[in-house]
């Protein structure tokens, strides 16, 4: 079927984004219509989807006609997007993620000093410690117990590390944060529940800011409060909370799913796992292979056209939004290669798109890489005989428009190695 791309328009979406559908199966269907296709999001909100690697790079790479600021989304400014629309939490907020140009640089600079290689490396001992504690908890269940590794290991670790960065040390507040966060990202709750969870999360963060204002420590929250009080008035109160929220949003679920997918990759490639444990392959390479095989972000929401723009043969009209199909784009660039987890062939992941590209390139990439390499090496060194508790074909994908991963990863840990 030959498609005339110039005739594609948001009035006639080629498909609907279906959170229950397997990510790569859906992507393959969309890509048959071209690299940039009109689709329908929840509640029949319309958007373009950039699905090929080239289209994704073009959109991400500081394109002069595209913006990250939702105030340029015509349907939103016309009030056509329902309150509590499931993706609004991902899209709104006065954070760097939604800012362009000088504003983006100002917001990013304030946080980036918490993410310098030196600061990230300094977190390594604490990451090792937290990982070790989680593994002790798992070991206590016995070698033949079945555990959902996503829930018991991959989920708590990144949140604990982000709490560490923020200086949020109270276990009750951490617990509340985790509950609200989970509800906010769920597609199985009502819009009202999602809004209540968003309010609850802001409450926890506002509480943290009040605590740090009274007693500053050497954490990110204290550093941001200092920026708030800076003589240039560089950060507003709302931007402060929005920045903490965006770090949580950007850094948690992504790392959880990266870890879960890579563990699955290794459990299904025992030859490569043995090579890692024998030191023939490096753990950071396993992290890259996992990110390429299954980008934790299925789709990135969104960019907005500042003026009519031609992208890969389609015309995106001023004010129309574009979703970036990261998981599809990451695999599409090696279209002829079978999609499989393979640490040995680094061509697959040299031009990794899982962390995005251009000015918004993931600020936490180094942290995510370090954390994942430590977590995977400690996990498999402690439990080298770990195996899937169900056949791979019975694993269920997570139901999400934004996230690509597994709903659960049931494993038998096997006898620990000490
Ligand atoms: C495997 C884990 C991760 C993946 C796959 C990932 C992916 C991404 C992607 C694709 C973007 C670009 C967004 C855009 O262009 O609109 C991004 C931005 C960002 N990420 Fe990550 N991320 C991960 C982990 C983290 C962590 C651990 C943190 C911090 C704790 C973090 C903080 C951020 C921030 C602050 C931004 C916004 C940067 C900006 O707008 O300039 N991420 N991430």
TrEMBL record:
SUPFAM superfamilies: Cytochrome P450. Keywords: Heme, Iron, Metal-binding, Monooxygenase, Oxidoreductase. It comes from the Bacteria. InterPro entries: Cyt_P450, Cyt_P450_B, Cyt_P450_CS, Cyt_P450_sf. The keyword Iron applies. One of its GO terms (molecular function) is oxidoreductase activity, acting on paired donors, with incorporation or reduction of molecular oxygen. Residues 1-21 are annotated as: Disordered. Belongs to the cytochrome P450 family. This is Cytochrome P450. It comes from Streptomyces aurantiacus.
